């Protein structure tokens, strides 16, 4: 499914690479014993922490630098800072991730781990075990026939979002369906999504606008776990997204700090404590 304007060239390049990776091998379906994200969010709330899904992202097309730290060290530092869950990029070409890094991270931490990649069909699910699996509504059915392999497979029926959601659940994953607008949200809900992320980044221009979450969130049913994605750069943004209805926040660049090589534990803690610090300040003022 593609909607609206054309995708940015960088995004098209990512999809081309994803199509090639997903088509290369046949694997037995995984059977995952997943750690519950909703339980982890509940624990964070009880502890007075903002539920933050901290992302291990070595680099990205929208960042100016790269962090070469060991993924396990980064993930454990994020959990030390109070992260509710960890997201790990497994896309190798544009984000510097790998399935091996995710496996190592999941073995090292006791919180849920999200596999963040560009899964376009069922075969792409069976690469590595994770607790959650990202499915991007806009990309379902997208195929970039730029080489002989993709051309040979271009006539294969495209997976529908509801089929991918069901396939993910059958494997034990908790599918996180990402949307950017109300049309994609409707598709996600029709597909039975129970965890939905609203991406503040427009994949046509790669621009970020926090108004996106605020405009789409009111249409999300109360029984859906809602995650704010992209553009959360500090405590003020955390508070803004929480006030708009976010149950949790997925944060990568603000924690990784690709340009500055700062302490990811401190970066995570600043976001996790964002609302608590405001409450403390209010109490002092009164």
TrEMBL record:
Q: Annotated pathway, please?
A: Amino-acid biosynthesis; L-tryptophan biosynthesis; L-tryptophan from chorismate: step 4/5
Q: Indole-3-glycerol phosphate synthase domain: which residues?
A: 14-268
Entry-linked SUPFAM superfamilies: Ribulose-phoshate binding barrel (SSF51366)
Q: Which GO terms describe its molecular function?
A: indole-3-glycerol-phosphate synthase activity; phosphoribosylanthranilate isomerase activity
Describe the reaction catalysed, as an equation. 1-(2-carboxyphenylamino)-1-deoxy-D-ribulose 5-phosphate + H(+) = (1S,2R)-1-C-(indol-3-yl)glycerol 3-phosphate + CO2 + H2O
- Enzyme Commission code(s) on record: 4.1.1.48
GO BP terms: namely: L-tryptophan biosynthetic process
> Which UniProt keywords are given for this protein, alphabetically ordered?
Amino-acid biosynthesis, Aromatic amino acid biosynthesis, Decarboxylase, Lyase, Tryptophan biosynthesis
Task: Report if keyword NAD is assigned.
Answer: no
Q: Which Gene3D superfamilies match?
A: Aldolase class I
> CDD domains this protein is in?
IGPS (cd00331)
* Membership in a protein family: Belongs to the TrpC family.
NCBIfam families listed in its UniProt record: Indglycph_syn_Halo_TrpC
What name appears for this protein in its UniProt entry? Indole-3-glycerol phosphate synthase
Q: Which organism is it from?
A: Natrialba aegyptia DSM 13077
């Amino acid at each position: 499914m593609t909607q609206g304007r054309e995708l940015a060239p960088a995004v098209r390049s990512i999809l081309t690479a994803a199509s090639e990776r997903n088509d290369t091998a046949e694997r037995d379906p995984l059977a995952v014993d997943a750690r519950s994200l909703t339980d982890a969010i509940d624990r964070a709330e009880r502890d007075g922490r903002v539920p933050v899904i901290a992302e291990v992202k070595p680099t990205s097309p929208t960042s100016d630098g790269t962090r070469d730290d060991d993924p396990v060290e980064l993930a454990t530092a994020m959990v030390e800072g109070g992260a509710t869950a960890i997201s790990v990029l497994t896309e190798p070409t544009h984000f510097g991730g790998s399935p091996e890094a995710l496996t190592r991270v999941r073995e090292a931490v006791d919180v849920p781990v999200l596999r963040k990649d560009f899964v376009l069909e069922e075969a792409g699910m069976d690469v590595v075990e994770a607790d959650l699996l990202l499915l991007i509504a806009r990309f379902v059915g997208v195929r970039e026939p730029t080489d002989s392999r993709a051309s040979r497979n271009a006539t294969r029926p495209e997976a529908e979002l509801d089929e991918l959601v069901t396939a993910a659940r059958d494997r034990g994953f908790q599918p996180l369906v990402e949307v950017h607008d109300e049309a994609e949200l409707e598709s996600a809900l029709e597909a039975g999504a129970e965890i939905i992320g609203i991406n503040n980044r427009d994949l046509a221009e790669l621009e970020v606008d926090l108004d996106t979450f605020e405009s789409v969130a009111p249409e999300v049913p109360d029984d859906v776990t809602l995650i704010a994605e992209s553009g959360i750069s500090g405590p003020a943004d955390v508070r803004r997204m929480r006030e708009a209805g976010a149950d949790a926040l997925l944060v990568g660049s603000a924690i990784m700090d690709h340009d500055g090589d700062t302490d990811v534990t401190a970066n995570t803690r600043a976001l996790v404590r964002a609302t608590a610090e405001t409450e403390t300040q209010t109490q002092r003022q009164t």
